[in-house]
Design goal:
Layout (H helix, E strand, L loop, with lengths): L1 H18 L7 H10 L3 H6 L6 E5 L4 H14 L3 E4 L7 H11 L12 E6 L5 H8 L3 E4 L7 H4 L2 H13 L6 E5 L3 H4 L9 E6 L26 E7 L2 E5 L13 E8 L4 E7 L2 E7 L4 H16 L4 H9 L8 E6 L2 E6 L4 H11 L6 E6 L25 E7 L3 H10 L6 E3 L3 H11 L5 E6 L1 H15 L4 H4 L2
Parallel strand pairs: 1-3, 1-4, 2-3, 4-5, 5-6, 6-9, 13-17, 14-15, 14-17, 15-16
Antiparallel strand pairs: 7-8, 9-10, 10-11, 12-13
């Protein structure tokens, strides 16, 4: 009875918030459902015939979860999934309640798989409630320090969560990230590693933003034969305990990137697949690789995996293209130094003049502390940027950072978001490409403005 009331309340709240267009948030439906029935997540998750999987990590969870859902659907299964950004317990509760029938069951329950994107700090609680058959870890970077404390704290939470998993649960780990790979030591069940083998994308040295350059076993400094980005690469602990990057069973054997997309060749136990993706940046190659690794661990065939990747459309706002006033506009979320460095490297790789608008906000969802911008290599834009518009409620912090990168003669501060976007569009030649790089809350604002101008639906209508 209580469960039915919880489901009904969540459905009503979700319908109401959509009707009122108060936003794509699922906080209220999930909070209501959990308040009425505190066991809603474990009880409902138990009814998913194919079980649940958790996707977590600092960067790439939304895109990876979306890629994986495409593969799951291509394999003929039904999906229950939380929406982008609603990755706390209440987001999972809302997703389960919305997908359920009013009697508490799921239509086609036998063929339903839960694919949940989970916030880093929520992993222990989500794992206890969902009893997942698989947990996929993408990477661990410094992100929103004021929310979580240090990366070591998150790593410790994850080790405890993995230690308590069921013996039958598989963990899927990024071999190229030392602190993710180290989770294998505490897993009671099967482990599958994925990684990039194509070293043509790598470089010899660590950048400023490298976080986890210390051995997960003994704490001494790691050596890298190749660095892909941040602290991801082919690593080893040469002096002390001699652990090294484990060999991976799902690997990217070829990664080709340009400003429009990525071409990947991935070798996996069942064969090899080639995947063209409408996403740029090595970080997206990792997202695709992670999704393929999880799909492979779940036993999906290469045919379904290739079809699923092919059906992919860019996760909202992470990397979306639209056409506004005759300019191509691409919105790319930036939330930490490693991610933004990779974005800058990708957009400047073509060598041509690039037009860029940076939006820096400091709301809770962005991280209140904006000092991370000092770890970003904005020098990459020197000689490459044609126009550089700076906005957001911390625009002047960004302007100061750009001054130290020698970009002050180029950058123009425009605090008002709409005025900043207009300026950036005007500075971009017709048929040209504008890169809009916002933090999270700025992305919501920018996306709404651009959508209005490009006459596209609001994101919560497009997102599903
Ligand atoms: Zn060591």
């Amino acid at each position: 009875m209580r469960r039915i009331a919880a489901i009904a309340a969540a459905k009503a709240a979700a319908a109401l918030s959509q009707r009122l267009k108060v936003g794509g948030g699922t906080a209220l439906p999930g909070l209501l459902a959990e308040r009425i029935d505190p066991d809603i997540v474990p009880e409902m998750a138990r009814r998913l015939g194919q079980g649940s999987i958790i996707v977590t990590g600092t960067n790439g969870k939304t895109t990876t979860a979306r890629l994986l859902r495409g593969i799951v659907r291509a394999a003929g299964l039904g999906v229950v999934a939380n929406r982008a950004g609603s990755n706390l317990m209440r987001g999972i509760a809302a997703a389960l309640a919305e997908a359920a029938r009013l009697d508490g069951g799921f239509a086609g329950a036998k063929r339903r798989l839960g694919v949940f994107e989970v916030d880093e700090a929520t992993v222990p609680e989500a794992a206890r409630a969902l009893k997942p058959r698989l947990v996929l870890f993408t990477n661990l970077f410094r992100d929103q320090l004021d929310r979580y404390g240090e990366v070591e704290h998150v790593a410790a939470l994850w080790r405890d969560a993995v230690r308590q998993l069921d013996r039958s649960a598989t963990v899927v780990l990024n071999a190229d990230d030392p602190s993710i790979a180290g989770l294998a030591q505490v897993s009671p069940g099967p482990v599958l590693f994925y990684g990039v083998e194509d070293t043509s994308r790598g470089s010899g040295g660590l950048e400023h933003a490298a976080d986890a350059r210390w051995c997960p076993s003994c704490g001494s400094e790691l050596a890298y034969s190749t660095v892909f980005y941040g602290h991801l690469g082919h690593w080893s602990c040469p002096t002390h305990c001699r652990v090294a990057r484990p060999s991976a069973s799902v690997v990217a054997t070829r990664v080709e990137l340009d400003a429009e997309g990525t071409s990947l060749a991935i070798a996996l136990p069942g064969g090899e697949i080639s995947a063209p993706l409408p996403l740029t940046g090595l970080y997206n190659a990792y997202n695709a690789l992670a999704a393929v690794a999880a799909a492979s661990a779940l036993g999906f065939g290469t045919g379904a995996i290739a079809r699923g990747l092919g059906s992919f459309t860019a996760a909202f706002g992470r990397q979306e293209r639209m056409n506004v006033g005759g300019r191509r506009v691409q919105v790319i979320l930036a939330k930490n130094p490693a991610g933004l460095n990779e974005v800058l490297r990708t957009i400047t790789a073509g060598g041509a003049d690039v037009d860029v608008a940076l939006f820096l906000n400091d709301d809770i969802a962005d991280g209140r502390d904006v000092s991370w911008i000092w770890d970003v290599d904005f020098d990459l834009l020197a000689g490459k940027a044609r126009s550089l518009t700076v906005s957001g409620n911390r625009a002047w912090d960004m302007a100061l950072r750009l001054k130290y990168a020698g970009l002050d003669s180029l950058s123009q501060v425009e605090e008002d978001a709409a005025a900043a976007l207009r300026r950036a569009l005007r500075a971009t030649p017709e048929d040209g490409q504008l890169y809009v790089i916002p933090t999270y809350t700025a992305m919501l604002q920018v996306r709404e403005l651009l959508a209005r101008w490009a006459r596209r639906p609001a994101f919560w209508e497009a997102e599903k």
